Target: G-protein coupled receptors family 1 profile domain-containing protein
Amino acid sequence: MIRKKFQNVVAKYHTLCDNTTSNSSPLLCFVDDAYFCLCDINNTAQCFLYNKKFDQCKQCLAQGQCIKGDIDTPSDYLCLCPRCHFGSKCQHNTELFSFNLDSLLSPDLLSSSLVKAKLSLSMYIIVPTVLLIYGTISNLLSLVTFRQPRTGLNGAGHYFLAGTIFSQVSLFCLLSKILHIIINMRGLFIQPIVNTVLCKILPFLLSSSNRIGYWLIVFVSIERIYVTIYPTKRWLQKPKIAKTIITLITIFTCASHVHELVKYNIVDDPKYTANGKWCVTQLSRSLQIYNQTNTMIHYLTPFLVNLICTIVLLILIARTRANADKNKSRWKIFQEQFKKKKEMFIPSMIHVINALPHLIISFSLICSDLDKKWQRYMLITSYFAAYVPQCLSFHLYVQPSKLFLREFHATKMWKTLSGSRRTMN
Model:
């Protein structure tokens, strides 16, 4: 009965091929639930039994539609990606704050031009290596300074000490992540479990350590406003309070990024190389919204608080001195106080200025396919530039402060370095 019903339906399909009864363009082919039909030169439908499962596959991520080609060729498939996703498996996401290093670096590292691929490989290894080497020296100098007893009398010294440690972690993870991307794309991992662990833990450590550093600078700015408003009070300056805040920041930031440990996974991609793989996230829509919201909170909140604190601090100090000295203009007083108390402004100002390009570019390229090279290179440049403050801790935290610089000069490291310099001269 069912077969007879289908035969009756197919008998009417000849009219679909007859373009003389319609003003529309003639059909070449069409399908239904059971048949695949071709329109021949006589405007007659030639129909064959057709199983849709032969054209379906499960290679695509982000709910992309997968269309299978040759059944015997694993790499012969096509992914129709949803909006804001691209890549051979729809693995790259260009929604707000969803850009990652894999999507930014892969077009250069997998370029068909051997010269371009080798040059890109060298550049993407050299840049984070230089940042790590310079940052290690700077962070080591900062670390020995903030280990001095007098730097720990106030909360700021503890924030800077913790910030120095997390800066070093983030720089190490940045280089490790890029090396992991390169090795992963070339399918050089022997142990899949090692590859999976690195895929999960490196993005988590990179995100967490970087954003903990943002929050620590925020509390340095808040403490300095507190000191300016209440010069005789010490509650917020107490080391115990600072240590508690550092612990809470670390727990809060790590907890808010736990989903990265769970949702980052390794997927094969036969489109590029026989053994090539991607380290990607597979998030549900609700978790994707959470991830974007979480990233915005960790980026925008420290940025805005640092900006507000810097402006308020400048106004408070200038106003205080203006009331004490009526003979000078407010602008003159502002300049004098900025030079005199530059250690109070420089860290937060540098972090604000440094974060601004990445924020602007990320907002302007939301859901862009990054089909233009300059868009991708702008994102790569702003991404690496965001790590510059992490390798300048000594210049940002120690050198501008007379107290911290004096404590550094009291360390054994400084005495050893200055003694070696005198010997060489």
